[in-house]
Amino acid sequence: MSILIAEILGTMLLILLGNGVVANVVLKGTKGNNSGWIVITTGWALAVFVGVVVAGPHSGAHLNPAVTIALATAGKLSWSLVPEYIAGEMIGAMLGAFLVWLFYRDHFNATEDEGGKLACFSTGPAIKNTVSNLISEIIGTFVLVFVIFYLAGPSLDIIGGVDARAIIGLGSIGAVPVAFLVWVIGISLGGTTGYAINPARDLGPRIMHAILPVKGSSDWGYAWIPIVGPVIGCVIAALLYVALV
């Protein structure tokens, strides 16, 4: 169970269950059709819980390039490990998206709404406004990462060039607090862009949407926002945390 494998499995479960709840709510003919935003935000929170439980002891369960970049920016993770983490997160996100499509394939075929089908893979704005959408992703990711730093605690313990808390990462604080954090971000800040707050969570499934036989545009014109926004937000959070402690 290497860092790469742990991040693949953890992120795969995150996307399978997270995008799975979106599919259950959005797609035609499912048992959960039209069950609402609270169901979606709760499903995503619990999806984070599951991913952290599996990957936490082995990689720290970053499951998110924004978390990985923030830890490296704060000096808690060697930059040499960042590519391995992000590779695992991207592969896991793509695998999870494929499994969502496989699981709900009949319902994808029965659904005419192309936008709804894209929502089962990646995020999109409720109102298209580039500046506002970017700000939403920056603020949402800032809250995620900044609070994670304080949940994990300020002390450092370097082992072999890697901070021990970065290795344990989210698992060191327990999966439940992180699930609550993601839940409240979704409920409070998710209404504008769908709170990607995770470049891999959006980009990996969007790539799979383009590859798989799912009709409709993958909206590549918007795709940079849930990548750039979270990266900016996580760096701001890391720099502020370092300045304060």
Automatic annotation (TrEMBL):
Lipid bilayer topology: Multi-pass membrane protein
Recorded family membership: Belongs to the MIP/aquaporin (TC 1.A.8) family.
Alphabetically ordered keywords of this record: Membrane, Transmembrane, Transmembrane helix, Transport
The organism of origin for this protein: Mariniflexile aquimaris
Coiled coil region boundaries: none
Superkingdom of the source species: Bacteria
Membrane as UniProt keyword: yes
Entries under SUPFAM superfamilies matching the protein: Aquaporin-like
Entry annotated with the keyword Transport: yes
The protein, known as: MIP/aquaporin family protein
Sequence intervals crossing the membrane: 6-27, 36-55, 86-104, 134-152, 164-185, 222-244
Compartments where located: Membrane
